[in-house]
Give the backbone structure.
Amino acid sequence: MPFAFGAHLGKNPAVSRVATCAVHFNYFRVDKMPLRQALLQSVIQTGRARMLVMGLALACNAAAAADSPIRKLDVAFENDAYVVNAVFFAPAPPNVAWDVLTDFDKLQGWVPNVAESKVLKREDSVVTVEQRGVAKYGAASFPYVTERRIELKPPAGIKTAQVKGNMKRVESTIALEPEGKGTRIVYHLEIVPSILASTVMSKKFVEHEVGDQFTAIVGEMTRRVQ
């Protein structure tokens, strides 16, 4: 008989107010449980959503890593030189990898920082190549011009040395090794920057440039076998 109980107390205003507060207090105590359950459910759902987003992000990162041609890319600064030791994988046979790497007159078609590339001279297994472009990383950039003497040792070796250019020294080697249905590319590079270039270059800058170049080069190798 809750209404009769309340009506009876209502004859005394003071008691009535106390009773009314008690009734309201009990009402909210009874209804707190669904509210807590709703809040708990919301927290659980939010947590699940966050876990789902994190899972998707990890899956995307894993997929990107699996698709990347970069197996290893280490950059060190030793004395006055940036030294790069890298390994890449191309899903193309060594002969296709060789054709792309030695297609000097067309490198600007797929290497992002090369604006112009042309053969100046060929003598047996030695090729002289001139290249122009702009190296960029974030807000940092600088133009370059280089003339390189390239020794070809088909079907698996390329050795390059700068003859003229705006770097103090640039030397590199590339070795191609068959791996399954593809090619393992082992790359070594040493760069001694000029005074101007040294104000822009860093290990991150060199890592970005080498990674971008070989990702584009492997992309061309892949395109040629599709």
User: Anything to note?
Assistant: The radius of gyration is 34 Å.
